[in-house]
Amino acid sequence: MSKRKSAKGTPQGGLRKRVGTPVRPPLAETARGSAHEHRQTDVALRESEAKFRKLHESMQDAFVSVDMQGRILECNSAYQEMLGYTADELRKRTYLDLTPKKWHAMESRIVQEQVLPQGYSGVYEKEYRRKDGTVFPVELRTFLIRDASEQPSTMWAIVRDVTARKETEAALERLNATLAREVEKRTAALCESERTAHAVVDGLTSHIAIVDAGGRILAVNARWREFAEENGGSFIAVGEGANYLAVCDGAARNNGCAAEEVAAGIRKVLKGKSPEFSTEYPCHSPTEQRWFIVRVTPFPGEGPRRALVSHENITTRVLAEQALIREHEFSERVIHTVRTIVLLLSPEGKIVRFNRHFEELSGWSFDEVQGRDWFDTFLPARDRGRIRKLFRRGLRGPRTHSNINPIVTKDGRELEIEWDGAPLKDADGRLVGLLCSGRDITERRRAEAALRDREERLRTILNTVTDAIITIDRRGRITGVNPATERMFGYSESEMVGQNVSLLMPSPYREEHDQYLENYERTGQAKIIGIGREVQAMRKDGSIFPIELAVSEVDHLHLFTGVIRDITERKRLEAEVLRIVEEERMRVAADLHDGICQELVGIQFVTNGLRQDLEKAGHPLAPRARRIEEAIGAAALRTRQTARGMNPVVADGSGLMHALRGLAERTRLRGVHCAFQCPVPVAIENQTTASELYRIAQEAVQNAVCHSHAKRITVRLSESGSEACLVVTDNGCGLPADVAGAPGMGLRVMRYRAGVIGGQFMIQSRKPTGTAIICRVPKKHL
Q1: Strand, coil or helix: what is 123?
Q2: Beta strand 217-220 with 124-129: parallel, antiparallel or unpaired?
Q3: pLDDT higher than threshold 50 for residue 7
Q4: pLDDT value of residue 235
Q5: In 10 A of CB 601, how many CB atoms?
Q6: What is the helix (H) or strand (E) element at residue 417, kind and residue range?
Q7: Edge-to-edge strand order for the sheet containing 559-566?
Q8: Residue ranges of E strands in 71-216
Q9: What is the pLDDT of residue 255?
Q10: Distance between CA atoms of 176 and 179, rounded to whole angstroms?
Q11: Contacts of 122 by beta carbon, 8 Å cutoff, 6+ apart
Q12: 599 vs 607: CA distance, rounded Å
């Protein structure tokens, strides 16, 4: 028994513990130890995971992990904010979905050549694409995670937005280039000849003199000499040969310590006790007050010691500094006077400064809360976390606008404040904090509620107006109409809503409308928005009628609103007025040609006979009679030309062609190459249409010569199966991009004339220079 007991574990037993061989514990103890170790391991894992989660969320840099197929597994809030996606949206994507295609090959190469072999990559740059489509540069470093079997499992990446750094680098490159050019200029200037150098010194605005060791002035520049001639009582007002130290000593006895200080500085430089000397001093006169800065430096060169003395007029700088001080004081008064909150927070969110208006709103004085945490002091507890995130984002830039959050006043009231913010940096580019301006919109919010009540009344008014009002989205689909639209076009509301607005347009407006919306969506350039325009519309029965269209954009709703007025009756009256004007012009032209012109010719014949009689009699008034005869002839010619100009188009089918050919010939007399082209004869029987087309061509040629300074003009008249087309092209300087809304009288008149005859008027820019004026008239108006 003793032996068995000893064998079970008694140290004195026959089984001794071998050195280096562990004693195996009983099975139960082993199980208990294993369970205890598992629990400790689980606790450690949970603590590690919690620490990792906390670190993950607190990282300011963006963090993302993906599997080996590139699918996004996890990311922190900074990554989501950077790209504009939510975490759920990102988990449905791969990291290549967020990367422009041009970077895919590089990304794959880095994974294959760096991450997989060595477990991490170096820092590299590429681009990301945000949810809104904008592309921006980022800096990444990728790490590989392996599973228990040492197989690649996931990849982690730390991502940093380097947009600001890239902009800074570009700015530095531009600055370096500027500095390099400046250095080249300065180097070239230093290499000029001695004569040029003396001329430059003479031309400097500083007063420069060279003095020897004893203070005698050896040489001065032109500015010093001019000052010496114009002024007295100043220690600059001496010439060459004078002892400058003695002059300074005398000026010190008369005018104070400034001259004494200058003399002492010169002596130190001349004796080698100081490398240089400078000081500022005022120089007063009865008429003005000036300030100078004197600089004394050793003059380079062999031989006895000399010094270069320069007095520079710094009156402008001193006055600017004084103005800056006044401006600063003014700014301080403005900051404390404006009825807008001005607030400066440190990068840690501490209160650095605010103005008196905020003191009045909040009930707190600045001294009471200076240095406190802004969020804990002034924000409701429910909003602090959200506003801290906005604050951190604002520090990174860019400028933020119209963030609305409440503040809590000293007496517990909540005020709604609309904030704008921008990072504030010092002269060295270091972040000082976030500068915010705020407006109390508490009353405005109450007013908005009242505004909603008024909207209903406005809707009632819109339903009673006689003008048609149509609302469309950015795809051109009708989203709403008023009752006047139904009456004007003959469609019911249900027939129009959801349809493309081109339903209400005839050709060619129907074909051009969608292309116009697409161009506006892509370029942001509006041609008719905010501008009244006359176009044609089409009713349900197919009839076409003229309308006046005004389009406006509702930005925040991404909608366009068109106000349409039927101008059929107005157009009829305009055409009638134009017809009466043309008839009156033709009548006046006939009266001039057949009446006054004939009478002038008769008077000319009588004067001719009188002149001949006087010449035969040798009368001294014969030359005067000749001049009278010539003046009457010139008057008759001008009257005939005026009559022809008032009625340039002969009332037959070919009259327009002959009139345009004459217009081209008269233009060539002004030194401009002008050609008339008409491939086949175009017969226009309607006298009004022919006259208006001629007037349009005449105005276009006049604009090309006088305003575009064109040297080559082409007037082309052609006819197709459905219309006649007049085109005037030139090679001048062209018209501005926003010519559709140009207020010029000439363009407005041309549009008006084209509208009267039912034509379509267009203006096109030609590459690289020049303009094309186009007017198309349907066959039925010819």
Answers
A1: coil
A2: unpaired
A3: no
A4: 59
A5: 15
A6: strand 414-425
A7: 478-481, 468-473, 559-566, 544-554, 532-538
A8: 72-75, 124-129, 135-146, 152-161, 207-212
A9: 55
A10: 5
A11: 114, 141
A12: 12
Nearest to 764 by CA among 743, 745, 739: 739
The number of C-alpha atoms within 13 Å of 11 and in the hemisphere containing its C-beta is: 0
Residues in contact with 182: Cβ distance below 8 Å, sequence separation at least 6, in sequence order: none
Task: Show the tokens assigned to 467.
Answer: 């003008």
- Tokens 């009368």 correspond to 619
Q: What angle do CA 75, 77, 78 make, to 5 degrees?
A: 95
Both tokens assigned to 429: 């580019």
- Residue 38 token pair: 């598992």
The answer to whether residues 518 and 474 touch, using CB atoms and an 8 Å cutoff, is: no
Task: Label residue 492 left, alpha or beta by phi (over 0 means left) and psi (-120 to 50 means alpha).
Answer: beta
Q: How far apart are the C-alpha atoms of 577 and 651, rounded to whole Å?
A: 19
Q: Average per-residue pLDDT in the chain?
A: 79
Rg of the Cα atoms in the chain: 45
Those residues whose C-beta lies under 8 Å from the C-beta of residue 282, and which sit 6 or more positions away, are 258, 289, 290, 291, 292
Token pair for 493: 């509301």
CB 14 within 8 A of CB 3: yes
Which range (217-231, 353-367, 700-714) has the least confidence? 217-231
Whether the per-residue pLDDT at 12 is higher than 90: the answer is no
Contacts of 642 (CB under 8 A, 6+ apart): 589, 592
Amino acid at 581: V
Tokens representing 647 are: 């009625």
Token pair 């919306």 is at which residue?
517
The token pair at 717 is 């008249």
Give the single-character DSSP code of 352.
E
| Confidence (pLDDT) at 43 | 62
Please give the backbone phi and psi of residue 39, each rounded to the nearest 5 degrees, phi first.
-65, -45
Overall average pLDDT of the 164-183 stretch: 84
Q: Which residues, listed in sequence order, are joined to residue 723 by a DSSP beta bridge?
A: 778
Residue 753 has pLDDT above 60, yes or no: yes
pLDDT confidence bin for 715, thresholds 50/70/90: very high
Residue 469 sits at the vertex; the CA angle it makes with 466 and 473, to the nearest 5 degrees, is 175
Q: Which residues contact 551 (CB under 8 A, 6 or more apart)?
A: 528, 529, 530, 531, 533, 560, 561, 562
